[in-house]
Design brief:
Elements: H1 3-26, H2 36-47, H3 73-82
């Protein structure tokens, strides 16, 4: 099986499974019924972003000073003068 055959098969399976999910969500309709509103509501429900409430940490804030990692330019110049 070549890469492109594998890719086509994966896309085909995704489309079939997506269609099956849509039919499951919307249900079957008679030929005269419009499934547009039911499909739109199903998509709205799936695409709705549920935000979780932000939890405020009870620990005190970090010190206001800036924490430095490594050596500063002054410390490097100071060690070069000492050498």
């Amino acid at each position: 099986m070549s890469f492109f055959q594998w890719l086509r098969e994966g896309v085909r399976q995704a489309v079939v499974l997506g269609l099956a999910d849509a039919v499951e969500d919307v249900g079957t309709r008679a030929s005269t019924e419009d499934f547009g509103p039911a499909l739109a509501q199903s998509l709205r429900d799936r695409l709705t972003v549920h935000r979780e409430p932000k939890i405020v940490d009870q620990q005190p804030a970090a010190p206001a000073g800036r924490r430095r990692l490594g050596r500063s330019l002054e410390s490097l110049q100071g060690s070069a003068k000492a050498a």
